[in-house]
Amino acid sequence: MSLAPAALASLIDQEAQAVGNFPDTVRTHHAPRAKSVIFLHMIGGPSQIDLFDPKPEVNRRSGEPLPESLLKQLSFAQIQEKRPQLMGSPWRFSPHGESGTHVSELMPYFASIVDQVSLVRTVKTDNTNHMFAELMLNTGWQRFGRPSIGSWVVYGLGCESQQLPAFMVLRSGMRPRSKASNYSNGFLPSQFQGTPLQTAGDPVLHLASPAGFTRNRQRQTVDAVNALNRFRFDLTGDDEIAGRIASYEMAFRMQSAATEWLNLSDETADTLRLYGIDDTDRPSYARNCLLARRLVERGVRFAQIFHGDWDHHTNIEDGLPAQCKATDQATAALVTDLVRRGLLEDTLVIWGGELGRGPVAQKGNKPAVAVGRDHQIEAFTMWFAGGGVRPGQTIGETNDLGCLPVTDPWQIHDVQATLLHLLGMDHTQLTYRFQGRDFRLTDVHGHVKTDLFA
Length: 454
Hints:
By secondary structure, the protein is α/β, with parallel strands linked by helices. Helices cover about 35% and strands about 15% of the residues. It starts with a helix and ends in a 15-residue tail after the last strand.
């Protein structure tokens, strides 16, 4: 307890470096194209056939039964009919930008940035259940307990910010079915877990000090606790104690940094209009997109936004337009804003759900319930922008009915391997030994998809 303050500060800095909070922990395997990631996870499965992958043949044959040959190749989550009927899209598509990319009328703002993004129409996952598809996308595994993709990234690269956590989570609408497992550290040390922003009450829990508790007094308390933790760490070598030291120190620094980051008063009126924000204090998807930009500006490595609900088993004609209206402007604004500020070049933006929707109608059990679309896992759309991505292209083609890949299939592990590659990491070498074996995000799968790269 009598350690000199300078010696203790040095000790804490050394410990923080050892557990991955400082830039000199970066372990790249090759030259990176991106420094940070903004991952926009659209919970529930957006309907690619109504947004990004127009199928005139489905429209022409709307009402006809799905060919029996395809029934054997598709996995349905809820449809029980022996021969479900094809359902065309009620929304028009038109080409946009120099790339001529076809986009639904539901996404006019996205249409304005198509030349900045790369669409992949043939992503495939392994499970029709939302919970396990979420886990697959975010952890590379269909069971609980594995580290999330953001945790793996921070474990590999650390953070450029000494004031904010390397992995931040922002949420709007519904929560993921698999809850915090989507941003958990799993079996990695706890300092690599995502830090969620709260949507009610204090944005970050316990951000403010108790009344009458000065910053100097708190600094002394943190120093004393960390000194005791260090003594224990020297005896045991327990990574969790090292993580605890880093967490105490980060929490102390966040008290000023987070308050500044959350305050949008320094944003111009033009920027707020660009995102569609009319209340800077009210939590929303638009506000989260702007906060994500502010995070990467401040050196945060991985910012993940979860937004739902895109799960339109029924009444898709009302539900899908509502979700597009809630997200389209802010999503496009995020990309535009990153371009304006020179940040898109080294920030990788990813948009997509854990699965997609099929070309057939899902009818409700009650006659009055409007139809929707069931899950589709064999082919759905994600898009990528910035961070070494070649803009203005479309990768992969689906069949005439939009339910199976014809060219360039992408497994979820391919998405993860490609993301890590753009950050300078070889997915086969990013490993962590746990319970006697080496684990990695992509398990024994995954291929880097170089067609995506500029």
